[in-house]
Amino acid sequence: MKITVQKYGGSSVADADRIKNVARRVIKSQQPGEGLVVVVSAMGDTTDELISLSQQINPEPSEREMDQLISTGEQISSALLAMAIEHNGAKAVSLTGNQVGIQTDDSHTKARIFKIDSRKMIEELEGGRIVVVAGFQGINIKKDVTTLGRGGSDTTAVALAAVLNADSCEIYTDVDGVYTADPRVVPDAVKIEKICYDEMLELASLGTKVIQNRAVEFAKKFNVVLHVRSSFNERPGTLVIEEVEGMSMEKVVIRGVSLNQEEAKLTITLVPDKPGIAARIFKNIAENNINVDMIIQNVSAQGFTDVSFTVPRPELAKTSALLEKIAGEIEAGKVNVEEKIAKVSIVGVGMKSHPGVAATMFETLAREKINIMMISTSEIKISCVVRSEDGERAARSLHQAFELDREEE
Ligand code: ASP
Ligand code: MG
Fold first, then answer.
1. 280 lies in some domain
2. How do strand 102-104 and strand 113-116 relate by DSSP bridges?
3. Backbone angles phi, psi at 320, to 5 degrees
4. Which among 136, 197, 374, 387 has the fewest CB atoms less than 10 Å away?
5. Atom of ligand 1 nearest to the CA of 152
6. What does the CA dihedral 18, 20, 24, 25 come to, rounded to 10 degrees?
7. pLDDT tier at 247 (50, 70, 90 boundaries)?
8. How does DSSP assign 287-341, residue by residue?
9. Closest ligand, as measured to the CA of 39
10. Which residues line ligand 1 (CB under 6 A)?
11. Residue partners of 94: CB distance under 8 A and separation at least 6
């Protein structure tokens, strides 16, 4: 049986009217003799509201109870959507992660799927019913409910598309697709027609929020083509696909620009330049579950060096306290923190075959008199940390320098 998987995000099912809208779209897209699986997120800001409710009751709830609580949002939206579909005369059944047989590991609030038993889904599809699945959730071996991390309904959809060998996985959201930059920051940003998994992964981990990066990882691993598009109009969106030969040879060198204003920078000065010191600093930070992003170490002068790195801003206070302690232990100098930074990045597989991309980026920032504080690169990405107030201007000038506004022509 030919199967299609669709996923509707929280804003697409935010209220009764929007759920009815989704029901109409779903029924319209149903093809006779084919299977349709629809994954939904929780209505609007339900997940955030549940989290803040829990905070009023217990600031440190167990992760098991957290999952038990936040998974309810998707149970509500899936049942309501199934009802809406039935009200319009089609057959539907809603299923929780448990009923679908989504088995995950034990890591509550950020669980990973390891097995899906598709039998129940297939049975329902063969019965001619549209299967509406509560996204974001699974169960572990102990039969406790787990959730897949914020934005995890995307991962549910991609994983179901993979096990069902679906023809396509359509991700419906409130924007028309993936853009060359955030249109709120760069008004000239245009919708990207096609992007490869690796570019999408870089953009998603840099903060482009249209799709969860774990979902992209999954799609890449199982070669699921994603179509990110709007649930409010019929326009085609963005296809996320495998890198096809020639993609990096095209004239499009850079696929997108991203701006992250949610990090902070810490520097530890006069660090003794000896083997094992960096390991000691970062092991300590990792043990406290703090995700470090960019790291730079200066060349050593007289046996000492400065080490700077960035962390998510909400982790700044915790990291700085920790770093003060480590600085004492390793007999380093001061700890400096800088909250007002922005990270601007350019991403594109075309970088692999086009020299001079970094030079163009730095020249562009120089022309704008924007000072670069840190640089990091991967094969298909270059990021610069700049002052927070320069962030938006940096993104706009890079978007223009790489002619991203002309991409669709
Ligand atoms: N409702 C969950 C969240 O807000 C999962 C999702 O929307 O995909 O993170
Ligand atoms: Mg969401």
1. no
2. antiparallel
3. -70, -40
4. 387
5. 8
6. 20
7. low
8. HTT-----EEEPPPBTTEEEEEEEEEGGGHHHHHHHHHHHHHHTT---EEEE--E
9. 1
10. 10, 41-42, 47, 73, 135-136, 150-154
11. 75, 78, 79, 81, 82, 132, 133, 134
CATH code for position 127: 3.40.1160.10
Q: Is residue 353 part of a domain?
A: no
Query: How confident is the model over 90-109, as a mean pLDDT?
Result: 97
273 Cα to the center of ligand 2, angstroms: 45
Q: Which of 70, 148, 153 to mutate to test the pocket of ligand 1 (most atoms within 8 A of CB)?
A: 153
Gap from CA of 259 to ligand 2 centroid (Å): 20
**Pairing mode, if any, of strands 263-272 and 304-312?**
antiparallel
Domain count, the chain: 1
Q: Whose CA is nearest to atom 6 of ligand 1?
A: 151
Report yes or no on 102 lying in a domain: yes
Domain that holds residue 152: 3-174
For 249-287, the DSSP string reads TSS----EEEEE--EEEEEEEEEE--TTHHHHHHHHHHH
354 found inside a domain: no
C-alpha–C-alpha distance, residues 339 and 319, integer Å: 12
Identify the residue whose C-alpha is closest to ligand 1 atom 5. 151
Rounded Cα gap, residues 83 and 58, in angstroms: 34
Q: Report the pLDDT value the prediction gives residue 94, as an integer from 0 to 100.
A: 98
**pLDDT of 47 above 60:** yes
How far is the centre of ligand 1, averaged over its atoms, from the C-alpha of 152 (Å)? 6
Q: Is the pTM of this model over 0.85?
A: yes
Highest mean pLDDT among 64-78, 199-213, 248-262, 291-305: 64-78
What does the pLDDT average to over 342-365? 94
